[in-house]
Each structure stands twice: as C-alpha cells, then as structure tokens.
Amino acid sequence: MQSPDVAPHPAPSSPAGPAVDVEQAEAALVEHYPRLVRLAYLVLPPGRARGRRVLTAHALTQGALPRSPGPVPAIPAQPAGREGDPGYGLLRARVVRAALARSLPLRRRTWAMRTHLPPLLPQVWGLALFPRSGGADELALEERLAALSGPARAAYVLRGLERLPDGDVRGVLTAAGVADADAALREADRLPADHRLLHSPEFDPCSLQARPTDLMRRRRRLKAALAAGAALAVCGALLGLPGDGWGPDGAAAPPYARNPAAEAALDPGRLTRVSPTAWKTSPRTDFTVWPARGDLKGDEALLRRALAVWARPGGSVRVAATPGTPSGGPAGPPQLLYAGTVDNARVVLLHDGLRIARYAEPKDGTEGAALDFARVDGADRAVASAVVLGRADGNVRYLTAPWVRGAAARDLRRPDSGASGLTLTGGVTSPLAGPALQRGACTSWTALQLTDEAGTRLVTDLGELVPAHLTAGRPGAVGKTARAGALRTWAPFACSLTAMRSAGVRSVNAWPFAEQPLPDGSGSAAWVCTRAETWRGGGARVLAQFHTPGGPHGAVAARAEGRPACGPREPHVLAGVLWKAATGAWYLLAAGSRGTASVRATGGVEGSAAGHLLTVRAAQGARADLRGTLENGRAVSGLG
C-alpha cells in the first residue's frame, strides 16, 4: 500500500465555514493547550530526539494561533472542535497540518515553513527536557507509530486521542492537506484499536523531566566564545592601523601563493603508501599500518580530485563529519588506504593520523561527489578492524584490516542462528544488510563478525565511516561479544543501538547488572546497561534497559548523556521502571548494580529495601525518585 501524500498547502474544496474570532481561538488554545501539545507530539515523526520533539510540539501548538487580529475564516471540510467549539477545531486542524509538514522529505519543504530547522521559540538553555519514560507497551506503540506514514499516524491519533469517528478524521486530514485521507485511514487500521496508551505520561510533553546538559562542554564553549570575541576585537584594531606595518595583509603571503606544505598535501605522488607486510612486524595495530589497496590506487587523476576536494570542497559536494571531527584539509601528505570501484562509485579512503576521509564520486562523472570524515585517533586493534566503503540498496560493504582472516554476518536478535560467511576480495567484504539504513519496526540487527589471530569480535554500522566495536560485561572487565553468553545478553537489546546512530561512537558495551524476580511469580527480569563511548571522549550515551521473560525487546527505563555511570570510572548504576503484572496490578521495580547496599523510593511511590533490589506496589503513572547507598557508604541517584 502506498503511503498517503500530504500537500504542503491545501486548496479548499468547499466554501469556508463561519469565521472564528482570534480571541475565541486564543481562549480555546489556553483551555485545551495540554491536549493540543500532546496531539502535536504524537503526530510528529518519532525518530527525532525527544527533547527537540517536545520543544517542536510546543512551538507548533503556539504557532497555530492566527497572527492577524479579527475574524479568521474557519478551515473548510473539518468537523467542529471539542463540544462544538469552532475555535478548537481551527487550532486542531492547524496543529495537525504543521505536524504533518514535519513528516515531509526535506526536498519538499519550503523555506517559509522552516520545518527543517529547530523551533525559534520556545528555547531552553542549560537543561534537557523530555517526558517521563514509559514501559514496554509504550515503547512498542512508539515503534508502531514510527512505522506509519505521517497521515496514517495522524489518523490513528485523532481516532484515539480525540475520539473522532472516521468521517470527522477524514475531514481533519483533508483540512490539513492530506491528498488521500482514505488511504491514511486504511493504513492506520493495521494498528490495534486499543488507544489507552496515547494518554500515557510517556507521550505528555507538558509533564517533563529536566536534566542538565554537558556542563563541562558548556563551560568550554563559553571560554572559547570569549576568547574568540577578544581575538576578533584585537584583529579589528590591528587591521585599522595606518602605515606599512600591520595592514590588511601584514606578514601573510599574497593570495594563492605557492606554499610547499600545501602543495605537498595535494600531490598524489607524495601520498604515504604503507608496505603490504608492514603490519606483520610493526608494534602498532591501527590504521597507520594499513596498506594501500583497490583497483584504482594508481589512478593519479582520481587521487588528485580526492585531495583537491578535501582541501577545497565545492558547493555541490556533500560534506559530513562525525561529532567532534574537524573537516579542514590535511596538514601534509595523508596515507592512502584504498582507491577503487565500489558498486556504482569510485571511492578513495585517506588517513591523516587524526581522521579518515572518504571521497566518493559516481562512476560516470563527478557531479554528486561526497566527502565524509571520521575521527580515529587512539584507535587500537579492535576498532581499527574495518571501515565502511559504501552503502547501497540497504546493504553495506567494508574494507577490513590486513590482519583480518575471515568475515561473517551475524543477526544480534537471533543469537543461536549462527553466522553467515562473507567473501573477502582484496580486503573488501561482500555486501551485507546495513542496520543504519533500516526503517520501521526493528526485527533484526546485522553485525559484522571479524576473525583474526587474536580471536573473533563484532562491530556494527551506526551510520558512520568506522563501525562501533560491540562488547559485553562489567565495566573494566568487558569481553568479546562473539561469545555465546554475550550474544544472548545483546539479543533483546540490539535494537536499542538505533539511539547510538551518528553520534561518533567508538564502542558500545552491554552490562547485565541485575536480575529481579517479578512479583507475580512469572520469572525474573533482566536489567542491562548499555554505554556508548565516543571518539571525542565526551558525550557518552547510557541506557538502562529492562527485559521481562519472553519479551521480544528490552524497554528503556532511563537514559543519560555525558554521565560516567556504567563506565570504568563509575561502574555503578541504579534505575527503576513501572511494571504492570498480568493481574493488572502496578509495581515499581528498581535495581542497582553489585555493591548497592540499599535502595529507597520517594515521591509518588514510597518504599525502601536492603540490598540492590526494590519492589513496591504503585499506581499507574506514579513517579518516584530513586536513591541508593553503596556498600562503601557513598550515595547514588537513579539514572535519567
């Protein structure tokens, strides 16, 4: 079934209804603001960061109020609002239209709509805001909504949240610019008709948690901004000095002067080419000992273009870099890792000691060239085992390290299924499914299994040049994920790797820190903490996840960024989740890592227990603050 299309600017098909006064619309906005914001939050594409999605929902709702004073014609072909209020009906249609515009591909958005930019207002500085985390049911609903098209998602939400019959839903969608409202309704029929979860605190952007952002990074940015401002003021004063001293050019060479170092960096004849056997005797096992490979490594014209684009990318070149990676030209002649044909492109891989740069151009020309950067300083044998050569048709090809003897594809979701062997041709793998490109519900997660003389390890594509190394175990004592026990640890939580995409991730560790008996006697739940370390050192992402027996996926109970929890510096974690038993009773389940002497819950749920586990009866939607005490007497707080 094709997804229903959305027109950027709907054309009225019937005369407008009675006019709505702006004051009447404002009164409806004030009265029903929480419901309208929840509506916008649910219709928005779920893939965006939760904090930005919250601010966007508030911005769209506030922007739905007409700007011009006086009467406003009602939007045609739409039902009346709550209890017949035309002001609410006008706002609801405008909110749905604006949220659906955010689902359009970037090429179909207009500058006037500003849908590809963060909202101007509201803005929050120094705090990260996000709704309370829900349970496994909310996570499953979020995944199902993400798999729907924008109009179908709006149809489902209007049915459940607004309790509108299909005829009224069709009217709101038509007013919002949906070209085929019937197709949207048919697509929404694929989801269960149980709409109670739409009222969960997980989807309430008006009831938020606040956490600080990266404080050290903010301080560094403030210092850098002050230093840059002072330098700019000094330079401005010096440029204005009269005479032949420090004038406009000063001691700088004339424009386009021939600089030996700059020329050497652009000369393909001066590229560093490592011997194919250097890695066998070198004490280093990183990218510096990779030999030059590929069928085009002798094509000087291609290499010259790659170096020139790296130094001076043109306006048509798509340039991308992982967070914390500079994209400037090389300081000297870089090392050639690969130059060859990959599917329908010519690809060049270069290494300058700090970064890997990938230049790619179509085989039939240079229009549409791309330049990607990834930071790789401090790489070791585990993370310098492979580099992404290219992605096409949902598949990915890797260039492997010269010490790799074998490669295979392994589905992390099915730990007992075994690995599927891949062919290696000149170090290049045959294509395998790329999890970074998959959309919709997560049913599998394909990782690359590499074997060398040191053993077997797993890496996975997270949408960047260098795949992330996967490990499992307690911080400071992690093991290789290719082992059977580690594979079973990762299986329920593999799909959570989507939260680590495009973040400059170096490695991800899964640590099963606790098992907790369920209060209804149905078995024991597993608590696992996944921590993604980055190449830049800061901005590590931490997820505390909860998995019940027989469940297909783990549920994210808490998350944090830039905190040392679950890492070698802070090998402790405490997290909790509201869980519903088969009998319908709700419980607060909390668990701490080994070494936790006691756990206490305060706020909406009160309770305490000795040891690292806590089970307390709770009400649906209750909120609690967790505190723990370690065996050494130090206090710890709940993650997230």
Tags for this model:
640 residues; alpha+beta; 31 strands; ten-stranded mixed sheet; five-stranded mixed sheet; 28% strand
Sheet with most strands: 10 strands, mixed
- Nearest-integer average pLDDT: 84
Helix content: 10-25%
The rounded Rg comes to 28 Å
Anisotropy-based shape: globular
Q: What is the oligomer described by this structure?
A: single chain
Note the total helix count.
Answer: 13
Cα end-to-end separation: 39 Å
What topology does this entry show?
Layout: E1 17-21, H1 22-31, H2 33-43, H3 50-63, E2 71-74, H4 86-101, E3 127-131, H5 136-147, H6 150-160, H7 166-175, H8 181-188, E4 208-212, H9 215-239, H10 260-265, H11 278-281, H12 300-311, E5 318-321, E6 335-342, E7 345-351, E8 355-362, E9 370-375, E10 386-392, E11 395-400, E12 406-411, E13 420-422, E14 424-425, E15 428-429, E16 432-433, E17 446-452, E18 455-460, E19 468-472, E20 479-480, H13 484-490, E21 505-517, E22 524-534, E23 541-547, E24 555-561, E25 574-580, E26 586-592, E27 596-603, E28 607-610, E29 613-618, E30 624-630, E31 635-637
Parallel strand pairs: 5-9, 19-21
Antiparallel strand pairs: 1-2, 3-4, 6-7, 7-8, 8-9, 10-11, 11-16, 12-13, 12-17, 14-15, 17-18, 18-19, 19-20, 21-22, 22-23, 23-24, 25-26, 26-29, 27-28, 27-30, 30-31
Helix pairs in contact: 1-4, 2-3, 2-4, 3-4, 6-7, 6-8
